[in-house]
Amino acid sequence: MNPIIIIILVAAGLIGWIFIKPKLKELRRDKIRSQPFPKIWREILRQNVPYFYSMPSDLQLQLKQHILVFLSEKAFFGFEGVKINDEVRVTIAAQACLLLLNRKTDYYPKLKSIYVYPAAFITKHQSADSAGVLQNHHRVLSGESWDLGKVVLSWKDTHQGGLVFNDGHNVVIHEFAHQLDQETGAANGAPFVSYKKQKSWSQVLSKEFELLQKQAAKGEETLLDHYGATNPAEFFAVASEVFFERPAAMLRQHQALYRQLQSFYQVNPAIW
């Protein structure tokens, strides 16, 4: 066969696959979403994520369908004695999938693996000082989001976050907000928003970030954790925690911020 014809056929096949692959993936996900939600998983939600039962029934159904897909696509690994079972997987998935409701989603496409430690874990990082000498730094964390396909979580903090859903702190929401942010590149507090919404998003979040920085510098008590003043990426993650966990307070104290997050997440938890 003529080499040119072979090249044309191969190119046509590749182009066809590019168009067909997303459709096949969505068909597979539709099939998964149509499966019954296991009874034991419903009991895990009742025990570990009671917040689920305060949500509107249509969102409960959506969340269960998202959990089914999420757990079919993501790998879990336990460390330091953590055994990965349905309780661990469903508890994490239920909180992570809250961020996907009511909007088109590709289920954290960069994420492949979730690492679970029993409690807070120590991470090691290197940085160069002004003389170029590498310095080792150790941090104790309850969660960490990597843009290379990994989220690391403390099971103790994950479990507590599901049970206590009104304190404005939730490590799963925090780290998966970073995953949304990282879908557009490095985490910078600018997840994907439509072009017509970008200006208002940038203006409101920049203003609120600067306000939190000033309040944190003065040691003022704030609704948003001062950790959100670290950088725009952490501000978006912290604001996401408060949006879902203390929505009424955010709506009162930071209405413009609440409305931006409501538009982004396409839910209104203040009325649940």
UniProtKB/TrEMBL annotation:
CDD domains: Peptidase_M90_mtfA
GO molecular function: aminopeptidase activity; metallopeptidase activity
One cellular-component annotation, GO: cytosol
Domain of life: Bacteria
Ranges annotated as spanning the membrane: 6-24
InterPro entries: MetalloPept_cat_dom_sf (IPR024079), MtfA_fam (IPR010384), MtfA_N (IPR042252)
Keywords, comma-separated and alphabetical: Membrane, Transmembrane, Transmembrane helix
Name this polypeptide is given: Zinc-dependent peptidase
Organism of provenance: Aliikangiella marina
